[in-house]
Amino acid sequence: MVLANPEIANLPAWVIALVAAGGLAAALSTAAGLLLVISTAISRDLIKMQIKPDISEKGELMWARIGAFIAVIIAGYFGINPPGFVAAVVALAFGLAAASFFPAIILGIFDKRMNMQGAISGMVVGISLMVFYMLKFKFGIFDGGSDAVKGLTDSWWFGISPEGFGTVAMFVNLIVSLAVSRMTPPPPQEVQEIVEDIRIPRGATEAHVH
After folding, report:
1. Is residue 206 part of a domain?
2. Which residue would you say has higher pLDDT here, 178 or 140?
3. In which domain, by residue range, is 15 found?
4. For the residues 20-48, what does the mean pLDDT come to?
5. Which of 39, 56, 81 is the last residue of a domain?
């Protein structure tokens, strides 16, 4: 609507061009930031921190480039063959984020008992449930392909569309994370102190009555 409004209002062509350029710049800056996050997560968090701790800086850079290349290919494919209109695609993306990372971030700040086992279990269960639901009811993967999607709307769980199922998967993630963290050893004391320090602003003192 922002991009269409100048043309709807019959504004001069140069105004329409400026608005379009601003929209394109905003989209490219967001895409560049996300691409950096993806490549860094793969090269640093996955490869160096988990798989190969002794990897060189040159190797990290290589894996960052590989991760960025793969991300561009996947994004380009879904850009050419989108699973729905823009709002639906954005809703699916936020649903995947809610089903995977959101509970781990919140519990990591507000629950000192949250540990690695609970966070990983919750994320795996949450994102697996969301991906299954999306593939089944958005793409028809388990029901004969995309032609069967139109007939699956009556089979939605609790009447929830794939775009809105991220909330359900998020709560499942939350429950699994809390349950597993209580059944496994607590995090080290220093980690719990870090969580407590994050929750209390630096320099804060006892509350005063006014």
Report:
1. no
2. 178
3. 1-81
4. 85
5. 81
